[in-house]
Hints:
Elements: H1 2-36, H2 40-43, H3 47-56, H4 69-84, H5 94-97, H6 102-127, H7 136-154, H8 162-187
Amino acid sequence: MLGFLIQLHLNMFFVLLAAGSLCAIWGLVLLFMSRSRPGAALTSARQPEAEALQAEQPIAEVSDASQEPADIEAAGQQTQRGSAEIPSPAGPPASRTSAIPPIYRSALVVTGGLALLQAALGGLLVALGATPRDSLHYVYGIVVLVAVPVAFTYMSGKLERSRRDLLFLVIAAVIVAAAAVRAYATGHP
Length: 189
């Protein structure tokens, strides 16, 4: 049983390294694409949504002067309500709060989940009496575990700061990959 858990912990390193590296490379591509055309790369995934929103937005016109002011306000509110938001199961529309593609954020959440699983396996191994070759392994394990949540904490979520937010996420992905390599080097016999 202990041998199986040790092997699983060692093999999870490769999965975590692949996830962290993939997120880092993907984030760098998004970052450099947004640099060449400000806002273009980050919002390209939502371009059809924005065009659909503009096409659906009715223009409230007053056809005759006898229409009551309350009716005009109600029509204006109806227009605003109808086009203000696109309901999303995950909360507010991403195009309104951040320009970072939701699939990229989801990939980082999966990477953070893999780091949590790796830390849980490591904690179980320590509880069963297995210890790493070097105690520095614990430090690198903690760094892998907290890098993604810390990056999400420092994100502003504002559209005008999306490049900065993306940079935080890319740095977190690089830290996950680099610290995972160091943890592997200090823990592997």
